[in-house]
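lol ok so funny story. i was supposed to be doing the assay writeup but got distracted and ended up predicting the structure for this chain instead. priorities right. anyway since i did it might as well share w the group, maybe its usefull for someone
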Amino acid sequence: MVSEGRPSDREIDLGFDRTISKGTLCGYLSRAMVVSGLITCGGEDDLRMVRSTGARYIARAGGTWVPDKAYMLSLPRQKETIAAIHERDHDMILEACIFENVGRAVNDIAIPEHVFAAFGLPAEDRCYSYGRMVFRFGPNRDRFGPGMSVPDMRRMEARMFFYHLACEHIDAGYEGLHLGQVHLMGARDRRWTRWTDLLRKVRSYARDHARRGMVLVNAHTFGITGADGRLLFDFHSFPVRGRAPEGSVPHPPTESEPQEIVPGVGLGKDRRDLTYRDSIFTHSLGGTAPSGWECDSLPYFVELDNWNGFDPRLLDRPSFGEEISWWGFDEISWFANQPGAYRAWWLENLHEWIQEIDPVGHLEMPGRRTAALRRPDGSIHQGMYSASINGGFGDEDAIRRLWSRTPPGRCSRSGEA
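and the output, tada:
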């Protein structure tokens, strides 16, 4: 049931079963919102905001940066929460994150029999081994601190653990999985053969156990063709990436002079020359989607990314695309620290600009996410950005108005079906 003041779903086909059409996928992406931890640590006001705005795909609703035994034991409670949400809104997709980080805490997580069976191995009474998951040498080992590393997807133990996590989240009712920086984990996976096999197993499990017989898988990438010739992911996701306008000078944000950002770093560049500093706009790889349809460019959404809040050396200084910080902040922290009128203007104009420049692209609206926030005295603390009108930043109204007057985004380039 559509609540009062909520954008209507009448123009969005939300139905799918085992496969998803391009139009239905784009309908969901055109109503995507990040609400970090909605299931694990959210509250009633987050759900009220989601329903009020008309969000249909809730990114980063679950998952953990450091998977451990305690998190695994929390999944039955998450399942109850998700079931209660779906009783009121059957069509909402909730996304869980399985990130590019494992720690020694995996040594306490037992391996279920069905995971051994999926990989053709005899069952053992043992836990996972951190040492068997990670890169043996190089910068991806201990990348996030001692004993916190990027898993190496060439190693079966890493694939088994990711498969286990995916199955647990599917069983809990999540219908979306975000896999983070896939290029780090697949740095030495030639032709992406291991990733292809892993996602084949995950999708096979989803066909028998997911709510609607499938799970939508995405990652931070411009696109990857798997060893089977199909695109690895159901859709792509990437940070917005942007730069200050030419001529900008250092200054703190004020009502009359916000710290402006123009999106679209790397537009017009040859795809082979793109780096992580560039935007995905007009660069999303095409091919055969996992659901079987062909596209010149796979649908995607862009998010206001977070990484470490802010860099004191760059604070309030304009960047012109040579780095990923925006005036010294990560993307969501920059957004949170701008005046409210500029935030509303910027969201509306970015949304419309994406529709004009790349119809398969969509803007994931900011609902709630960790951010570096500036106090009145100028000091900065790590806090939480929320779009809520109840004690948050109040951007919820701007998002609802924008979606109310904007039909679901188109998802085809000219000449495509």
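The chain has two domains: 31-220, 240-417. The two ends are 31 Å apart (CA to CA).
back to the writeup now i swear
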